[in-house]
Write a structure and sequence with these properties.
By secondary structure, the protein is α+β, with helices and mostly antiparallel strands. It has a six-stranded antiparallel β-sheet, sandwiched between helices. It has a three-stranded antiparallel β-sheet with strand order 1-3-2. Helices cover 46% and strands 18% of the residues. It has helices at 15-28, 31-40, 54-61, 65-77, 94-105, 107-123, 165-171, 176-192, 199-212, 257-278; strands at 52-53, 81-83, 88-91, 126-133, 136-143, 158-160, 215-218, 225-233, 239-248. The protein has two domains: 15-95, Arc Repressor Mutant, subunit A (Orthogonal Bundle), CATH 1.10.10; 106-278, Beta-Lactamase, CATH 3.30.450. Helix 3 (54-61) packs across helix 4 (65-77) and helix 6 runs antiparallel to helix 10. It contains ten helices and nine strands. Strand 4 and strand 5 (136-143) form a beta hairpin. GO terms for molecular function: DNA binding; DNA-binding transcription factor activity. Residues 1-25 have a biased composition (Basic and acidic residues). It comes from Paracoccus versutus. InterPro entries: GAF-like_dom_sf, HTH_MetabolicPath_Reg, Tscrpt_reg_IclR_C, Tscrpt_reg_IclR_N, WH-like_DNA-bd_sf, WH_DNA-bd_sf. Residues 94-277 form the IclR-ED domain.
Length: 290
């Protein structure tokens, strides 16, 4: 009698498993994701970590070695990274060239030059111009007074959207829908920043800033520093950035605060008017905020 061999079927993943895996693999290899991941390498270089080895970059990247080396080579070929000793890399000279191009071409930077200089001369305080950059505020231009406080906001530095006069002057003029989304995501930070422990209080505080046309803060980001800032708008009336002054609070004459506020408001109006003339392409609503 011949025994029949029993065929044992190994359980195979159903078709949805392969569909999901294929979809994930394709997403990881998409041009958009690859470019974002490659450019993200540049964010690793900071004053605390200005030099990175190839191995450390690849490990931080979380990709295969071949992909990591390809990204590093691509950035080095265009001058965004430059090799130094012992297989390490630092940020490259192409970034310096791009910064010069921005200074020559950025309508906000160029629109603010004269007004910022006049503001600093008239108040005797250091001045800054900031722009909205996703969920933060970026310093675009600064003009330091001789008695400038240390660690003042300077070009290329980012600050939270909820602290400091320069940030709040921008935050207060975002759209209602944007503010609602921001509050839902960051209610805890908003509360600790003194902007309100609930949505109603948050909205009321921002309404006060909008009505005043200027924001004032003391020690919110840098201890002992007072800041006064007003919003800058594009041609369509959408918030673009802010202009303001900062000073050591212990040396600031608070009897002159109203005069400083008026000077800052006037500077913001001049920059807004100038942006409307030369700011081609700046009539865009703030996107990806929060």
């Amino acid at each position: 009698m011949v025994k029949q061999r029993t065929k044992i079927d190994k359980k195979q993943p159903d078709s949805t498993y392969y569909d999901k895996k294929r979809s994930t693999d394709q997403a990881d290899q998409s041009p958009t994701n690859s470019l974002a991941r490659m450019l993200g390498l540049l964010d690793l270089f900071t004053s605390a970590a200005p030099s990175w080895s190839s191995d450390a970059l690849i490990q931080a990247l979380g990709t295969s070695r071949s992909t990591g080396y390809r990204y590093i080579k691509a950035l080095a070929d265009v001058g965004m990274l430059t090799p130094v000793a012992n297989g390490h890399y630092i940020l490259g000279p192409r970034i310096i060239e791009l910064d010069l191009q921005i200074r020559n071409c950025d309508p906000l930077y160029n629109s603010a030059g004269t007004a910022l200089g006049t503001l600093v001369d008239s108040t005797g305080l250091s001045g800054v111009v900031c722009s909205l950059f996703s969920g933060s505020v970026l310093c675009v231009r600064e003009h330091l007074a001789p008695d400038s406080p240390p660690r003042l906001f300077s070009r290329g530095q980012r600050r939270p959207l909820f602290r400091g006069a320069a940030s709040k002057a921008i935050l207060a003029h975002l759209g209602a829908h944007q503010l609602r989304n921001i509050y839902n995501k960051h209610s805890g930070i908003i509360a600790t920043s003194g902007l309100g422990t609930d949505w109603s209080t948050f909205r009321e505080n921002l309404t006060k800033i909008r009505s005043a046309g200027v924001s004032v803060s003391i020690g919110e980001f840098n201890p002992g520093v007072i800041g006064v800032a007003a919003p800058i708008f594009n041609h369509s009336g959408q918030i673009l950035g802010s202009i303001g002054v900062a000073s050591d609070d212990s040396k600031f004459d608070h009897k002159n605060l109203n005069d400083v506020k008026e000077a800052v408001r006037e500077a913001a109006k001049k920059v807004t008017d100038r942006v409307a003339v030369i700011g081609t392409g700046l009539d865009r609503a703030a996107r990806s905020v929060g």
